[in-house]
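SUBJECT: A protein chain and its fold
Encoding: whole-number codes for local backbone shapes
Chain under study, with its fold:
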Amino acid sequence: MEELFREVSSAIALALEGLSVLMIVIGAVEALWRVLPALARLHATTSQGLRRQAWLSLARWLLLGLEFMLAADIVRSAIAPDWDDIGQLAAIALIRTFLNYFLERDLKEAVELPGSGGTPS
């Protein structure tokens, strides 16, 4: 029975990892789509606003992708983990938590900047 749970959790983790990659690819394509007009324009302020919007869009997708990756790691180690698995999960979770924290902080600061297109919170 435990082996069945391992196989199911492994399949779920693989699906979550695939979704995380998909989220990051979607974000990269969307950011590229948003930044292309900025590359074609010579006006610096308009170009800067378009680049900022592209960065904000990519950052949001990256955050979502990181969350899916962390979920995949948790599912993968959920069935009878040993101390090595727990240590690896803790290290991965710590790194991704720091990435999320700083990315979210940068997003909040960018949204609060005048001309960013966002609303201050």
